[in-house]
Design a protein that fits this description.
By secondary structure, the protein is of the alpha/beta class. It is built from eight helices and 15 strands.
Amino acid sequence: MNSQQIHLASRPAGTPTADNFTLQTIHLPEPKDGEILVMNTWMSVDPYMRGRMIDRKSYVPPFQIGEALEGGAIGEVIQSNHPDFPVGSKVSSMLGWRTHYISDGTGLTRLPETTLPDQSFLGIMGMPGMTAWTGLFRIADLQPSDTVFISAASGAVGSIACQIAKMHGCTVIGSVGSQEKAEYLRSLGVDAVINYKEATNLTEALAEAAPQGIDVYFENVGGEHLEAALNNMNDYGRIAVCGLISQYNATEPQPGPSNLSMLIIKKLKMQGFIVFDHWAHYGEYANQMGQWIAEGKVKWEETVFEGIEQAPRAFIGLFEGKNKGKMLVKL
């Protein structure tokens, strides 16, 4: 059995390009006793993967040049010598960026019996959904009276955060980079939408959208967005720092916001988080989200590229605003 894999050919300088990736064909042996052969059917590309392309110490090890990349994937067991993973089992793993792999079951999770599509466990029922829920409730202590500002609000995490905050009774303002994405947010019931590419002054645009001020900022972007949020936060506001996508491709250190003194003046709480530190609460999230989906209270979008060879293009598209909702590759 052969596996097609995407390897890191070189470390990107700035925004990744197709030249940073290569498609390789690797021969896999027959699975041994206690092993399974998995055929991936879906894989995820996510902005955090850009950080793993830099050779530096972080919360996860960097990708290595000449080796297959990794990321969330859904697959089906097609050969099994393992009692816990019979043929036909659907599994989630962090062994994306490849069509097939051999495993002894370590790090694999069998998908539950459900009517939800398999790929939802890479999106709304997976890491992005759990990230939105964690940031709002476990980091920002969301309250029904809050006014919430969410950047990158049409993305996989942001669009779910918008809907969770609305269901919790909050006023929600979202920031996006196109009119199409703005219309999508309005269809989700978001109270006000800012197209940051058309705003001449983001602080003023946010003040107009939220004259009552901001109680919670769900941070996905950084830079000017963080500065605008700090200027518009109410006293005792909370900022959950999920991502800083505007800085991921920077080739030199970026200046911080010029108004960090607002943290003191307004007595703000600002906390970064990594969702995997909170995974013990996934069952609570999954039960709640499953109920919301069953009741028709939540919508989600997917942007799908077809074929393992399109995975680099899908990944690069994250930094070009190509995705609405979850960016996926169907294998």
